[in-house]
# Entry
Amino acid sequence: MMKKIIMALCIFICVFTLVTCSGRQTNEPLTLGVNAIITEIDKENKIIFTKDNGEEGILGDDCLIDCSKIPMIYCNYETQDVVDITLDDLQVGDELILTIRSSEIENLQKEDDNKAKITVEQLQLGTQRIK
# Structure
């Protein structure tokens, strides 16, 4: 009788542990390839302003991106070389490919002056001009 109780208790603990550890996945998927165009660069504050490039309509016509802590890269499409870039390498009118978490897109916040602000995981310069 005692063996049955101990065995039932062990099975209960195993099942309980499996159920509690199998919660929702914590890694949120990224939304890759959000296209944008730079409309303004504030090098002093490490901020760029962008607008949508195309019909996606995610960022709107005036979206602020803080570039102080995000990786910025350039991929040469011909050679497939990827290099790190800085804010100094960006120009108004450049096309960008932004990596943004889906929750950021859903919760796009409007600033007081009606400008959207979004947190970006990575910025890729899409304009092909760096050699």
In short: Strands lie at 30-42, 47-52, 63-66, 72-75, 82-84, 95-101, 109-110, 116-117, 122-125.
